[in-house]
Amino acid sequence: DSGVTQTPKHLITATGQRVTLRCSPRSGDLSVYWYQQSLDQGLQFLIQYYNGEERAKGNILERFSAQQFPDLHSELNLSSLELGDSALYFCASSGSLALGSHEQFFGPGTRLTVL
Amino acid sequence: GENVEQHPSTLSVQEGDSAVIKCTYSDSASNYFPWYKQELGKRPQLIIDIRSNVGEKKDQRIAVTLNKTAKHFSLHITETQPEDSAVYFCAASLFGGGYNKLIFGAGTRLAVHP
């Protein structure tokens, strides 16, 4: 157990719908990262938040958005869902970057199925 | 753009043999190179990492080497065991200033046969 929690574990929805994935980082970690893992594309970086502020952005679609709240948990919102959005979505967290905490600890993931 | 290439995509070895996985990165500013192991249906877990100011790092049966000039780094697993069977991902990052964006390779599926 990495200490990073994600809910829900599984999500099945229809095309055109909107969903919200939730992540709670390890206690004390300030950074949260979101990754998408599709069968044929490996792990793709989506976005990073550090202490509530966006710090890095990957190839995140405009239909996707994220935020990190004052209690440091994060939510990833996916809207106008398409079949190709079906994937495993991982959240990861890491400690204070000022202290040089490089390691990212991954949560168990949320499996999204769009029908 | 940033890119990490990983080879081979699949690797099959006999128990006790060594396994080597190679990665090449495109961004010469990258300074942090972790390796993650992902078992079927589970989360990626860090197994070893190396920073750009170090050329080699070893942890028991696992070692990583880095060639900054060639922008190339490799994972070496010695005396492989069946429980080493998993998908291994390399990654590269420009770490600093509150920024740590990991760019992953496509993964290597390692099978260790008893």
Binned, the helix content of chain A reads under 10%
The geometry of chain B reads as: globular
Question: What is the chain-wise order of helices and strands of chain A?
Answer: EEEEEEEEEEE
Low-confidence stretches of chain B: none
Radius of gyration of chain B: 14 Å
What is the residue-averaged pLDDT of chain B? 94
Q: Report how far the terminal alpha carbons of chain B are from each other.
A: 41 Å
Main beta-sheet strand count, sense and barrel state of chain B: 6 strands, mixed
Helix-strand string of chain B: EEEEEEEEEEEEE
Q: How many E-type strands of chain B? A: 13
Contiguous uncertain segments of 5+ residues of chain A: none
Q: From the structure provided, what is the oligomeric state, counting identical versus distinct chains?
A: heterodimer
Number of helices of chain A: 0
Derived from helix and strand composition plus strand pairing, the structural class of chain B reads mainly beta
Mean pLDDT reading of chain A: 92
In terms of DSSP E residues, the strand content of chain B is over 45%
Helix content of chain B: under 10%
Shape of chain A: globular
Topology, number of strands of chain A: 11
Give keywords:
heterodimer, A: 115 residues, mainly beta, seven-stranded mixed beta sheet, four-stranded antiparallel beta sheet, globular, B: 114 residues, six-stranded mixed beta sheet, five-stranded antiparallel beta sheet, 57% strand
